[in-house]
């Protein structure tokens, strides 16, 4: 694979990359598009379904409300209450009351504009008045008694709508009326609500409600009406009536009163809408296959457009890249052969834009190479100077000679312990300065070196110098240039205590000021005012130990830590203070 790719030209590689990029992008886009279209189609179908369900809900609600109004009017009708009063009447009066009651019921039915509405009034004495002729009135009397038992328990303050009761009412015309809904309301006496004169009952046939929900009758949709217990009370397939909707269709009903969701297996989309101010819910169950068919239809069109788009893009890229890579290939061949005369001549055939850009890029490249060569030369020169400085930073022979001579004298005086201590500290000093080759060491190591140096000076000259080192634990591991504190300490000894008979003290301490680590070298010698000229001139002076002057220290600090870093010398309260400021990048 790798060998095959290496044989391809730039033009072929670009075409290959573009083709792969387009293919991968289209694959990702197709997946995203399919999901988006599925969501859009599902939402559109849901919006259509919920609109229809809302219309069906309004129709069912209207039917229920009309019957509620009817039964309320019947239960409060003064003539009905008068005829239901339990008073002695003759047979003629009883027959007249029956006719009057039937006439009142028929008037209500006609006013409802629904001649199929069936109404019955059962008195407390089990007299039955209805707008149809019945062969058996026992069913209605039993229904009245059951309702009164239910009502007396305080279960309903207004009308009661039964959804589980199924009555087979045989009419005189030998027609059987199977109702699924029975609405009942008590008829009270005008004198007391505790005196019930009878019960008004309205019967609603299931088919009348199904007409309102049968808005879609096809293989993809199933619409049912359920009650508050999720029992199916109306459906096209009458065998479903009475069953739990979740059991009949194998899904878990959403508790929301409105919306759509999928079943567990993702095979159905369920849309539901609660009937206004009732305990009924209309549910539409649609197969996902129907949605997928709509999505597939849209995706086929999308894929055709994608294929045409790919073909157009590849053709455009082919001719565009060919016009770019052909001049580049020719120019590359000329640059490899370094035939610059031919290069200048053929530039006229490449086009002005390409020539200008390539010439400018080539000239910039040449200039950058020249600058890089100069920079490397400067770096090599600086490296050479640094190596020379490093050699100069070693211990000077004069210091070493004086120290060895002091050791010799100590041995002659049989002070072997002192001599041994001098040899050990000189060895440690040599190890730090000559053997350890790092340009930067930790501040802790630098202070150890200073300690050895001061101990050697004290033993050599017999001078009593009390030196104190107070360093913050946070500063111990800070990297510093090797031997940068030694010139400051030697400056304190040479200029501070050379002609003074005082208790000499040198303090070295660290403090943090903003983003700076400040290292202070303090001595209580004769002071800076008396010897300021000597100290200033000593900036150029190379000290006895290492040949490193104060200017060298100042320059090294700025080189390593930036221009903000450096050396400060001043006098305060009888102390000469040399401060090293090191900028810390946090």
TrEMBL record:
Signal transduction histidine kinase internal region domain residues are 387-464
Q: Enumerate the UniProt keywords alphabetically.
A: ATP-binding, Cell membrane, Kinase, Membrane, Nucleotide-binding, Phosphoprotein, Transferase, Transmembrane, Transmembrane helix, Two-component regulatory system
Could you tell me which SUPFAM superfamilies the record lists for this protein?
Answer: ATPase domain of HSP90 chaperone/DNA topoisomerase II/histidine kinase
The transmembrane segments are 304-321
- Report the membrane topology from the UniProt record: Multi-pass membrane protein
The GO terms this record gives for MF are: ATP binding; phosphorelay sensor kinase activity
Q: Which InterPro entries match?
A: Bact_2-comp_sensor_kinase, HATPase_C_sf, Sig_transdc_His_kin_internal
The listed locations are: Cell membrane
Q: Name one GO cellular component term.
A: plasma membrane
Instruction: Using the UniProt record, give the first listed, main subcellular location.
Output: membrane
Q: What is the name listed in the Swiss-Prot or TrEMBL entry for this protein? A: Histidine kinase internal region
Q: Could you read off the lineage of the organism from its UniProt record?
A: Bacteria, Bacillati, Bacillota, Clostridia, Lachnospirales
């Amino acid at each position: 694979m790798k060998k095959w790719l290496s044989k391809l030209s730039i033009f072929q590689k670009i075409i290959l990359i573009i083709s792969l990029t387009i293919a991968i992008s289209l694959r990702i886009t197709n997946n995203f598009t399919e999901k988006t279209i599925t969501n859009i189609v599902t939402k559109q179908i849901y919006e259509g379904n919920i609109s229809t369900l809302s219309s069906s809900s309004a129709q069912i609600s209207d039917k229920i409300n009309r019957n509620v109004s009817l039964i309320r009017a019947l239960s409060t009708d003064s003539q009905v209450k008068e005829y239901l009063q339990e008073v002695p009447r003759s047979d003629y009066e009883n027959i007249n009351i029956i006719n009057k009651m039937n006439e009142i019921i028929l008037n209500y039915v006609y006013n409802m504009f629904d001649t199929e509405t069936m109404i019955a009034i059962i008195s407390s004495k089990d007299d039955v008045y209805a707008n149809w002729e019945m062969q058996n009135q026992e069913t209605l009397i039993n229904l009245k008694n059951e309702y009164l038992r239910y009502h007396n328990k305080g279960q309903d303050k207004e009308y009661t709508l039964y959804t589980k009761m199924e009555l087979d009412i045989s009419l005189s015309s030998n027609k059987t009326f199977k109702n699924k809904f029975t609405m009942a309301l008590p008829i009270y006496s005008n004198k007391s609500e505790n005196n019930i004169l009878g019960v008004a009952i309205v019967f609603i046939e299931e088919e009348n409600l199904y007409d309102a929900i049968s808005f879609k009758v096809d293989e993809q949709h199933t619409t049912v009406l359920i009650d508050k217990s999720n029992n199916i009370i109306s459906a096209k397939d009458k065998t479903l009536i009475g069953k739990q909707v979740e059991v009949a269709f194998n899904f878990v009903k959403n508790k929301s009163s409105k919306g759509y969701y999928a079943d567990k297996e993702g095979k159905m989309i369920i849309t539901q809408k609660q009937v206004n101010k009732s305990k009924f819910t209309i549910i539409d169950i649609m197969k996902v296959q129907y949605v997928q068919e709509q999505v597939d239809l849209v995706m086929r069109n999308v894929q055709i457009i994608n294929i045409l788009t790919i073909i157009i893009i590849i053709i455009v890229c082919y001719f565009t890249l060919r016009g770019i890579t052909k001049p580049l290939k020719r120019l590359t061949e000329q640059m490899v052969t370094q035939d610059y005369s031919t290069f200048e001549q053929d530039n006229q055939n490449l086009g002005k834009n390409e020539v200008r850009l390539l010439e400018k890029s080539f000239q910039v490249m040449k200039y950058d190479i020249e600058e890089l060569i100069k920079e490397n030369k400067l770096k090599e020169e600086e490296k050479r100077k640094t190596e020379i400085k490093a050699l100069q930073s070693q211990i000077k022979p004069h210091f070493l000679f004086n120290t060895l001579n002091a050791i010799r004298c100590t041995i002659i005086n049989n002070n072997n312990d002192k001599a041994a201590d001098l040899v050990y500290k000189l060895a440690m000093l040599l190890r730090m300065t000559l053997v350890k080759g790092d340009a930067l060491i930790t501040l802790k190591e630098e202070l150890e070196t200073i300690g050895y140096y001061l101990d050697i000076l004290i033993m050599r000259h017999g001078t009593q110098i009390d030196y104190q080192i107070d360093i913050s634990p946070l500063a111990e591991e800070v990297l510093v240039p090797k031997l940068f504190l030694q010139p400051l300490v030697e400056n304190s000894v040479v200029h501070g205590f050379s002609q003074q008979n005082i208790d000499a003290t040198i303090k070295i301490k660290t403090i943090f000021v903003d983003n700076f680590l400040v290292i202070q070298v303090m001595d209580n010698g004769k002071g800076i005012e008396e010897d300021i000229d000597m100290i200033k001139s000593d900036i150029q002076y190379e000290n006895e130990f290492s040949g490193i002057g104060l200017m060298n220290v100042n320059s090294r600090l700025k080189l390593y830590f930036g221009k903000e870093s450096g050396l400060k010398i001043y006098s305060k309260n009888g102390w000469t203070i040399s401060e090293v400021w090191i900028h810390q990048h946090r």
